[in-house]
Amino acid sequence: MTTEKSTELRQELKAQIIQHLNLEGRTVESIADDMPLFDEGLGLDSIDVLELIVLMDKHYGVRIADPKQGRDVFQSVASMAAHIEANR
Amino acid sequence: MNGLAHTRYRNGHFTVDGKLFAEPTGSPDTDLNNAWSSLGIELPRFPRMDRSSKLVAIGGSAFFIEGGALAGHSKDTIGMVIMGTHGSMDTDLKYQTQLDADNHAGPGMFVYTLPNIAMGEFSIQHGLHGSGLCLLNNALDLAQMREACEILLHEHGMESVICGWSDIFADQATATFMVVTERTLADRNSAELEKIFNDH
């Protein structure tokens, strides 16, 4: 179940992703919570992942310790938000 | 027009084979974005690329659009020779400025702090697997560029080479790219090639 707080976090994350990754033409509304961040979704690449890792560390104090963990965490905004909520 | 496929960016004017492709706006950043839109190539990373990579992407991609000099060519035998003065200095300084201000700089910027990244980015974008050379010089040295192209053509099995000058720093940007083959190099002396680089 999605709480109001986690909805807020997801919206905040979408805005930060757009700003940090300079996703021209993208709006918060155009990114679904479960939209894949890569390939056919947002079209992000491996360099963008590095930016997302820094974003999570800098803004939420959450680090990705194991590279394998990254695959699950960076599937979507929803998975990123879940990881932040569980670890901050 | 002298028959050699070429693109040029001078004083905000982006031309393909001498024809104006995008109007100047007075801002290199806006010019680069407008020129890219004019080419109509899908590349989500473009807005996040550094300016040097954008310049190479624009100048080189024009050869791959429909009807372009390299459209349909084997990606394994297209080489690249890019020469410039500042290399990645434009991005290096931005990186250092960000580092000084925030004690942190984004990895997305860090990856562009090498002069040859623009060529690498371009090769990934177009799936090129050929050989490449990135040369830093105070000024255009056509003899050296010609020699580098000949090495790629004669010793590395390249059938064609995208060669050119690409330089961007602060609010100054110039670029000229052309496609050469063994035949076009044999048919043209350095003075003819120089004319392409220097004609505004």
Structure description:
- The complex is a heterodimer of chains A (88) and B (200).
- Chain A has 88 residues and is mainly α.
- Chain A has one domain (4-87): Orthogonal Bundle (Non-ribosomal Peptide Synthetase Peptidyl Carrier Protein, Chain A).
- In chain A, 57% of the residues lie in helices and 0% in strands.
- Chain A is built from four helices and no strands.
- In chain A, α1 (4-20) packs across α4 (77-87).
- Chain B is an alpha/beta fold and 200 residues long.
- Chain B has a single domain, classed as Peroxisomal Thiolase, Chain A, domain 1 (3-Layer(aba) Sandwich).
- In chain B, 40% of the residues lie in helices and 22% in strands.
- Chain B has helices at 28-39, 51-61, 89-102, 107-110, 117-126, 142-155, 182-187, 190-198, and strands spanning 6-10, 13-16, 19-22, 78-84, 132-136, 160-169, 172-180.
- Chain B has a seven-stranded mixed β-sheet with strand order 3-2-1-7-6-4-5, sandwiched between helices.
- In chain B, a hairpin with a 2-residue loop joins β2 (13-16) and β3 (19-22).
- Chain B is globular.
Would you count the extended β strands of chain A for me?
Answer: 0
Mean pLDDT of chain B: 90
Q: Percent range for helical residues of chain B?
A: 40-55%
Strand content of chain A: under 5%
Number of domains as seen in the coordinates of chain A: 1
What is the C-level CATH assignment of chain A?
A: Mainly Alpha
Query: Tell me, what is the CATH class of chain B?
Result: Alpha Beta
Order of helices and strands of chain A: HHHH
Structure summary, number of beta strands of chain B: 7
Name the CATH homologous superfamily of chain B. Answer: Thiolase/Chalcone synthase
Order of helices and strands of chain B: EEEHHEHHHEHEEHH
What best-fitting shape of chain A do the alpha-carbon axes yield? Answer: globular
CATH architecture call of chain B? 3-Layer(aba) Sandwich
How would you name the CATH homologous superfamily of chain A? ACP-like
Taking the sheet with the most strands of chain A, its summary is:
none
Decide which structural class fits the backbone of chain A. mainly alpha
So what's the overall shape of chain B? globular
Secondary structural class of chain B: alpha/beta
The chain pair forming the largest interface, with residue counts per chain, is: A-B, 14 and 9 residues
Strand order of the largest sheet of chain B: 3-2-1-7-6-4-5
